[in-house]
């Protein structure tokens, strides 16, 4: 179900031990309460999937959906 309201695109960072993944998601500013943008259910599920796949190291899938940054250990 799509929420009514203005839609904005924003980049969100998902961080795990090995990766940081930058993905673009859509936020909705509902007309009833414009003080705070919110996510639709599909977006929340997508963000969870990104985190789970980053934890498993599924870099191929992550690269199809955003930018992937790898943690580099200090020497």
List key phrases describing it.
alpha+beta, three-stranded antiparallel beta sheet, elongated
Structural class: alpha+beta
Distance between the termini: 49 Å
Which segments are poorly predicted (pLDDT under 50) over 5 or more consecutive residues? none
The helix content, as a percent range, equals 25-40%
Tally of distinct domains: 1
Largest sheet: 3 strands, antiparallel
**Average pLDDT across residues?**
92
Gyration radius, in Å? 15 Å
Question: Could you give a quick summary of the protein structure above?
Answer:
With 75 residues, the protein is α+β, with helices and mostly antiparallel strands.
Task: Describe the protein's topology.
Layout: E1 6-15, E2 19-29, H1 41-56, H2 59-65, E3 67-70
Structure description:
- This protein has about 80 residues and is of the alpha+beta class.
- It contains two helices and three strands.
- The protein has helices at about 40-55, 60-65, and strands at about 5-15, 20-30, 65-70.
- A three-stranded antiparallel beta sheet has the order 1-2-3.
- The chain is elongated, with a radius of gyration of 15 Å.
């Amino acid at each position: 179900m799509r929420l009514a309201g203005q839609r904005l695109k924003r980049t969100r960072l998902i961080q795990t031990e090995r990766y940081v993944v930058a993905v673009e998601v859509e936020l909705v500013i509902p007309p009833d309460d414009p003080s705070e943008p919110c996510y639709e259910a599909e977006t929340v599920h997508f963000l969870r999937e990104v985190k789970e796949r980053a934890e498993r190291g599924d870099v191929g899938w992550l690269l199809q959906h955003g930018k992937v940054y790898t943690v580099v250990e200090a020497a």
